[in-house]
TrEMBL record:
Residues 5-192, 206-382 form the DJ-1/PfpI domain. It comes from Oryza glaberrima. It comes from the Eukaryota. This is DJ-1/PfpI domain-containing protein. SUPFAM superfamilies: Class I glutamine amidotransferase-like. Belongs to the peptidase C56 family. PANTHER family: DJ-1 PROTEIN, DJ-1 PROTEIN HOMOLOG E.
Amino acid sequence: MAPCKKVLMLCGDYMEDYEAAVPFYALAAFGVAVNCVAPGKKPPGDACLTAVHEFLGHDLYTELPGHRFAVTADFAAAAASRYDALVVPGGRFVERLSVDPLAVSLVAAFAGETATRRRPVVVTCHSQLLLAAAGAMRGVRCTAFFSVRRVVELAGGRWVEPDPLGLCVADGSVLSAIGWPAHGEIIRELLRAMGARVAGGRGQAVLFLCADYVDDYEANVPFGALAGVGCRVEAACPTKRKGEACVTAIYDATPAAASDERRGHNFAVTTDWGDVDADRYACVVVPGGRAPELLATRGEAVALVREFAGKGKVVASIDQGHLLLAAAGLLDGRSCASGVATRVVAGLAGAASVRYGGAVADGKLVTAASWPDLAEFIAHIISLLGITVSF
């Protein structure tokens, strides 16, 4: 069935990595088509280089290279009338777009006073600059990264402190946030503004098992998506306390089909390991990266995923997370999806069949090959949790 809603994402080189990836894969998991466009780039083949913005002990955030994010539609053919919402990630790319007449007019068509009908516009971190350039900020209650406050005020907007950092401010058709820490609220508000009916998520809790060098996308994208449909999402690590962070790793395919590794964002541990009780959760998610190499050596982590399965909970693993499932004996006789890294492991662990690529649900076991399969992976999880998103 064709998607009933379409969202336009305005992209460019050095847009914030999470602020593009989380809404892209989350909305796709909910059945929404997302077209990614960028001035000067065309599909197929063209991509934007994203940037990771994270505080690493300096006075200002550090910018690190992220992923190559594919352009999926032609910017020149983009028209507001064809879409139900606009998402503009943060990042330095909006500085150039703010003086691009075509980009500014496109934003104005969504949010400006002359729009025939108001469609939601999501602006995060620094992309409020583009809304100001379009003359659509006056009188609007808006939040952003702290340095953008003067831009909001000079453009006639009404500044709202981003407190807590997870705040998403909805004022008319404009949805604004400090950036990626607010993804749960951003997705919730965007779905509401698009007329979505979300059922089944409230009261359900999902636990993410992580450690240093967990895959950047595979942890944060489902974490934000599940929060967006009302789940309480928590993260635990057997070697870290609540409030500490796991460093994430970025794995991005090169033309040689290998994957280099780069540092990504930090992924916060939200609960102490000693406080984890499987009975409090409906699902456990094991992202990939190199983190499962540690988790598979920790008896308490192996026992925990085995306990989730034994109690009939949803167990979801992506990419190298399968190593922990194998250690817990959960792949024996099951169908699973795998990438190159874990195909041999899945076979040795007794998997009845191994699909290369994509995502598979076998009973309450969900597996996926890698982060490009996140939309399908998330869709299987929310289906097994009885969560529905309808328009």
